[in-house]
Amino acid sequence: MQCVGGRWTASLGQRMVPVPAVPGARLVCADAGDLGRALAGLQGGSGRPDPDALYRAYADEKPLLARIRAREGVADPCAAPERSPLQQPRGPALLLSAASFPLSRIMRLLVALAPGGVVWKPAPGAAASAHLLMRVLVPHAGGRLALLQGDHATGGLLAKTMTEGQGTLIWASDAAPPDGMDACTRVSARGPAIDPRRR
Length: 199
What we know:
Blueprint: E1 2-4, E2 7-9, E3 16-18, E4 26-28, H1 32-43, H2 51-71, E5 93-97, H3 103-113, E6 118-122, H4 127-137, E7 145-147, H5 152-164, E8 168-172, E9 185-187
Parallel strand pairs: 5-6, 5-8, 6-7, 8-9
Antiparallel strand pairs: 1-2, 3-4
Helix pairs in contact: 2-4
């Protein structure tokens, strides 16, 4: 399932990949049509994100999120959200994140990016925690958050589609971005953001 326009819906894609932390589970990878649908949903969002309510929703689910992260093989305490290393972009953003990236920093990025709209594509290894986090955030996001699922190939396709449409691309990982994502803003698990436009 994917979250588009504040609603949960099936992906338009057909390709499936396993979910590493859930034996036997598989997820359907998003395609370019899913991204287009997600961006249209962000543009149609009539509400405004409520940062305080978003933070409270995250705090209320931290114990369960931490247990799920442990099942995903990540030592993530789901700490209090950190200050965002990014300035809010003018338009929608695509956030691609590694499975090991701390939810505390993901949370801060989502809140910072929500006013302009953000599509989050986590790694398959974080699919379960991402679904739970999005489920508790969506009611307070004013239609400005979307979740798509898929693997590295999905991320590359979405990134290409997004950059062609002049959207903001954010790579949240300690690893270097894949080929073709040189124009992305990089955010590490601990360090500052690196924006190629300001080098």
